[in-house]
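Q: Predict the assembly, please.
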Amino acid sequence: MVHKKSSSIVVFLLLLLLVLMITGLFQGPAHISVQAALSVFAEQLGWSLALTETRPWMHTVLIDVRVPRILVAACAGACLAICGAVMQGMFRNPLASPSILGVSSGASLGAVCALYSGLAAVSVWTLPLFASVGACLTLLLIYRIASQRGQMAIGTLLLAGVAIGALNTSASSFILSLSLNSWEVGRTIIYWTMGGLEGRTWDHVLLIVPVAVLGIGGLLLFARNLDALLLGEVHAASIGVDVMRTRIRLLLITSLLVGGTISVCGGIGFIGLVVPHIIRLLLGPHHRYLLPASALGGAVFLVAADLALRVFVPEKSIPLGVITAMFGAPFFVFLLIKKRWSVQV
Amino acid sequence: MTQSMEIELACSKLGFSYQNAERCGDKTIAEVSLDFAAGQFVALIGPNGAGKSTLLKLLMGLIEPNDGEVLLEQQTLSRFKRRAIAQRVALVPQDVSLGYAFSVREVVAMGRNPHLGYFQAESEQDRKLIQQALQKTDLLAMADRRVDQLSGGERQRVFIARALAQQTPILLMDEPTANLDLCHQLELLTLLRTLAQEGHLVITAIHDLALAARFCDRLVMLSQGKVVADGLPDEVLTEDSLRRYFSIDARVDKNIAGELRVTALKPCSS
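A: Predicted assembly structure:
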């Protein structure tokens, strides 16, 4: 029965995620033993376990460096993947993803503006704010371009996304070129654009976790409506889905998720495209399972990628976005060749 | 045959045109006023482009009219939320394309959506209704097959089953027999007639005039967005109306079984 298989895959992904997250705690330049780690956590919670002697630096490394990094990786991966799944369902197009609709690049542009103007240094919240504003403005813009008299032309929406996305990217590049006069700012922008999880703190966690929980929870409510949308606008409307309203709500929630994610880890691409595909191949198109499985799959993907980076290339800080693109792009080409997608618009 | 005098669905002075049509001065639907009561099996007939599909979409509230209004249960349609409409009216559109790997049963189960909450799972009653819908459309044998691997005609039956599972008092169908073989055409129309006899209101757009005359008790003929005839099949399908609106020279008589027979002879030049 499909449902049993789907449920077991979801459970498997959850367990895999937990395993990877715990493994990540012990990975890094500083070696910390299991007993030490347990003691540190116990002390943090106010209990005393005293399995072995702990040092203050262990606290810092575990609690202030590794835990936030892993949490951010999991949340970011989950957000991007579920947004990809939702967009693919919403637009009945297997190529839809946050990056294609230009929302990711809009968030990036907002962040770059914050970095260049120096406002990012004012407060740790400035950058996420600018990024979310960038994502939302992009979204509103392409939505206005593509909708007319209450009807949305899907083809126009996707193309508008590509066009505005290109505009955002070139604006970012322009600002970057201006900033190269000051090497430090330029380096920060370039590094940030490529995406990474270096130096993520609890401030970042506190930003992304509530956004992720609320956003993902909200999207899960739409599972049935997304199934209906796959049948087509007219079919969906005739079984009671308010197509326009559902689309607007989905677009809003996904843009907030993407904006929040990008602002915390920079531009990480391909997760929204690749992960839902793999999950769909395993589970089929039912959003009741596809959405949670995509979120878990995305979290697994990013946590694993970050872990791999720290294990195999610990000295150099290669941005995460490079790794995801390196695996994502060939997979994307493979998909194109294998299925010769006919775009349903 | 049960006849109910209560007007379930009506439209008054309905007018609508698509954007391109407006510029050419054509109205897709102009000044259409119709009343429909429960227990009627109505056929919408007319040449291509007459506005049949558009009228069905207007009656369902999928598009907003430029003029006039649609009344559902004597209230303006725009007052209803989409979900509330879906609990009362089911539409089977013409388009049968579907490229996703749902099973037949899963698509039919979506017909229960208007009656289920966000996370609510299907109940025993829902499953029974889905089973009945599959049985009535002869789909039980392929209930677990993937929809994207079926033929066009089979997919059409899936969507009809979906509408049946929706359990609505009003059924709107856009060319439901278009892709079906003869046997399934007759089965479907017999089923629809039975539903009308049980008290449903069934309105179907249909091309086959003889089938329309045989199964439906009321024919509404549309031409260029206007209602040009409305009544019993005998009254509506005359050689004169066929020449005028369908642009064909035809013979209308009765066949051996006493049913209305339309024989198209040749297209008119005008």
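Chain B has two domains: 1-88+168-233, 104-165. The first strand of chain B starts at residue 7 and ends at 16.
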